[in-house]
Specification:
CATH superfamily: Beta-grasp domain
CATH topology: Ubiquitin-like (UB roll)
Strand content: 25-35%
Number of helices: 1
Order of helices and strands: EEEHEEEE
Distance between the termini: 52 Å
Radius of gyration: 14 Å
Structural class: mainly beta
CATH class: Alpha Beta
Amino acid sequence: MKVTVNGEDTVIEKEQLTVTELLKFMKVDMPDMVSVELNGSFLERNNFETTKVKDQDSLEFLYFMGGGSKLG
């Protein structure tokens, strides 16, 4: 199957896998801290294990960081 992950085409030798399996396959750092957008919609973390990734899907793995600068 061919999917797009963070703007890069990726070929996976499986017909289907879950978002959790894809995170492992892609060796994502801190998978428990990543947010996933699938075909333009954010997934809830509790759906990662049941949501299937299919051929031609587009995913974005996003990390939200806290912090900023002090104004003053």
